[in-house]
Amino acid sequence: MSIFGLFRNTFAEEAARAANTPGARVVDVRTPEEYAAGHLPNAENIPLDALAGAAFPAGETLFVYCHSGARSARAASFLKSKGYNAVNMGGIAGYRGKLE
């Protein structure tokens, strides 16, 4: 683990932060098959390879996650480059909270 990992919120903390952020949108950037296997309640599935075609309202906070955190990091970086307020939640792999 790098020293930067010591300062990162856990996935559960990010999920709670998303749930408590008014008007936040949670985006699962995994494949439709991964999404169907279990996802956060109220998360919408926009796979990473389809993200460039998605449009979001200005000023909306986007919380993005994937399986391990790699795709969500790329997604958050891409969204920020387009002017969106994006938060990388990281990966859902070790999450033990409620899933749909």
Labels describing this entry:
single chain; alpha/beta; 3 helices
Describe the protein in words.
- With 100 residues, the protein is α/β, with parallel strands linked by helices.
- The chain is 26% helix and 19% strand.
- The chain has three helices and four strands, in the order αβαββαβ.
- Strands 2-1-3-4 form a four-stranded parallel beta sheet, with helices on both faces.
- It is globular and about 30 Å long.
- The termini are far apart.
Low-confidence stretches: 1-5
Outline type: globular
Radius of gyration: 13 Å
Estimate the mean pLDDT confidence. 92
Determine the N-to-C terminus distance. 30 Å
Content of β-strand:
15-25%
Number of strands: 4
Strand adjacency order, main sheet: 2-1-3-4
> Helix fraction?
25-40%
In N-to-C order, the SSE pattern is HEHEEHE
What's the tally of helices?
3
Report the biggest beta sheet as strand number plus sense, adding barrel if it closes: 4 strands, parallel
What is the structural class? alpha/beta
Q: How would you briefly describe this protein structure?
A:
With 100 residues, the protein is α/β, with parallel strands linked by helices.
List the helices and strands and how they pair.
Blueprint: H1 11-19, E1 25-28, H2 32-36, E2 44-45, E3 61-66, H3 70-81, E4 85-91
Parallel strand pairs: 1-2, 1-3, 3-4
